[in-house]
C-alpha cells in the first residue's frame, strides 16, 4: 500500500505542477516510456550552450509538455492570455539559445537550418535566405521603416509578442489527447 499511496501522491503533485489530469499524466507517461525505450530518461540531442540538460526525466518531460496543454474551457479571457504568453515565452526561449533576451539573426538562422535540415531539397543557403527574409520581416513589423544606417539587433520578447499577434497559437500549439476508441481506429 505504501508504494501505491506514494505513487498517487506523486501523481497529485504532478497534476498541481503541470495542470494535467491523472489520465493525461498516465497517457504522457506511456508515451515517455515509448520515446525512452523504457529507460528513466530521454537523451537531449540538441547541441547548444552548456545550460542544457543532457537527459530529460519524466518530470522534466511533463513540465515541457505542460506548455502545450490544451486550453481549459473554464478559463476566463485573462487566463487564456496568460496561457498564450507562457506558450510564446517557451517558444521564444527555444530560439534565444544564449538566453540574453534577444533572438539574433544568427540564432534564428541556426533554428531554421536545424528545422529544415531533414529536408533533402532545401540546401543550407536556402535555409539561410529563409531566415534572413523572416528576420527582415520581423524588423519591419517591430521597428517600422528603418534608416539605411540603422541596425536591427534582434527580436525581444515584446517584439515576439507583436509578431505573433493575431495568430491563434492557443489551438495550434497544444497536445491532443486521443481516447482509446480513436487510437484503435489509427491502427
Shape-level CATH architecture of the largest domain: Orthogonal Bundle
How many structural domains are formed by the residues? 2
The main sheet comes to: 2 strands, antiparallel
CATH topology of the largest domain: Recoverin, domain 1
Number of strands: 2
Helix content: 55-70%
CATH class of the largest domain: Mainly Alpha
Quaternary structure of the protein: single chain
Superfamily at the CATH H level of the largest domain?
Answer: EF-hand
- Encode the helix/strand succession as letters: HHEEHHHHHHH
**Could you tell me how far the N terminus lies from the C terminus, measured between alpha carbons in angstroms?**
36 Å
Q: Quickly count the helices.
A: 9
- Poorly predicted sequence stretches spanning 5 or more consecutive residues: 180-187
* Beta-strand percentage range: under 5%
Can you list the strand order of the major beta sheet? Answer: 1-2
What is the 3D form? globular
**Overall residue-averaged pLDDT value:** 81
Computed structural class:
mainly alpha
Q: Report the radius of gyration as a whole number of Å.
A: 20 Å
Question: What's the helix and strand layout?
Answer:
Layout: H1 2-18, H2 22-36, E1 41-43, E2 55-57, H3 58-66, H4 77-95, H5 105-116, H6 124-143, H7 157-164, H8 169-172, H9 180-186
Antiparallel strand pairs: 1-2
Helix pairs in contact: 4-7, 5-6
Amino acid at each position: 500500500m505504501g508504494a501505491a499511496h506514494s505513487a498517487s501522491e506523486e501523481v497529485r503533485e504532478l497534476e498541481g505542477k503541470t495542470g494535467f489530469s491523472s489520465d493525461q499524466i498516465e497517457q504522457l507517461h506511456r508515451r515517455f516510456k515509448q520515446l525512452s525505450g523504457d529507460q528513466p530518461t530521454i537523451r537531449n540531442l540538441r547541441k547548444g550552450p552548456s545550460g542544457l540538460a543532457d537527459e530529460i526525466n519524466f518530470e522534466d518531460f511533463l513540465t515541457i509538455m505542460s506548455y502545450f496543454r490544451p486550453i481549459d474551457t473554464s478559463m476566463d479571457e485573462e487566463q487564456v492570455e496568460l496561457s498564450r504568453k507562457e506558450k510564446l515565452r517557451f517558444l521564444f526561449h527555444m530560439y534565444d539559445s544564449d538566453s540574453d533576451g534577444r533572438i539574433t539573426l544568427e540564432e534564428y538562422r541556426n533554428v531554421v537550418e536545424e528545422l529544415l535540415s531533414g529536408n533533402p531539397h532545401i540546401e543550407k543557403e536556402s535555409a539561410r535566405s529563409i531566415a534572413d527574409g523572416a528576420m527582415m520581416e520581423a524588423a519591419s513589423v517591430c521597428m517600422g521603416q528603418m534608416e539605411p544606417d540603422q541596425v536591427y539587433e534582434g527580436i525581444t520578447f515584446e517584439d515576439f509578442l507583436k509578431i505573433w499577434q493575431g495568430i491563434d497559437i492557443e489551438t495550434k500549439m497544444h497536445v491532443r489527447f486521443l481516447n482509446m476508441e480513436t487510437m484503435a481506429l489509427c491502427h
